[in-house]
Amino acid sequence: MAAAPHTPPGPGQAAAIAAAKTQAIHQTTTLLNPVFVALMQSLVVAIQHGLMTMLIFCALVIVAALLLKDVKLATTFRDEPATAPQAPNVSVPVASEAASSARA
Q1: Helix (H, G, I), strand (E, B), or coil: what is residue 25?
Q2: What gap in Å lies between CA 44 and CA 38, rounded to an integer?
Q3: Do the beta carbons of residue 18 and residue 1 sit within 8 Å?
Q4: pLDDT at residue 37 above 70?
Q5: What is the pTM of this model?
């Protein structure tokens, strides 16, 4: 419909509008196809690089897991009495003592 104001009125107006519409669709398709092809190729490359990075990382993790040595955390278990933790014995100066020591 955007082509209608630019075509002269007359018996061939509908045919001119249809031709302009067809030409616009063809030009748009011709213009956008290389953009879509480039986007598709860049997506393929990005996915390939991501998968290759994950493959290398997984291989390194497997090699590291094979090279790790098993270390026993404890050889024997002993029962410890369940006691509450005690707070450290710290003396806190009273405000009057702190003020007198600051003046001296």
Answers
A1: helix
A2: 10
A3: no
A4: yes
A5: 0.45
Measured CA to CA, the distance from residue 78 to residue 91 in angstroms comes to 35
pLDDT category at 96 given cuts 50, 70, 90 is low
How far apart CA 104 and CA 102 sit, in angstroms, is 6
Count CB-CB contacts under 10 A for residue 69. Answer: 4
Residue 31 Cα distances to 25, 39, 42, angstroms: 10, 14, 18
Q: What is the Cα–Cα distance from 50 to 68, expressed in whole angstroms?
A: 27
**How far from each other are the two terminal CA atoms of the chain, in whole angstroms?**
95
Local confidence band at 66 (pLDDT 50, 70, 90 cut-offs): very high
What SS3 string covers 49-104? HHHHHHHHHHHHHHHHHHHCCCCCCCCCCCCCCCCCCCCCCCCCCCHHHHHHHHHC
In residues, how long is the chain? 104
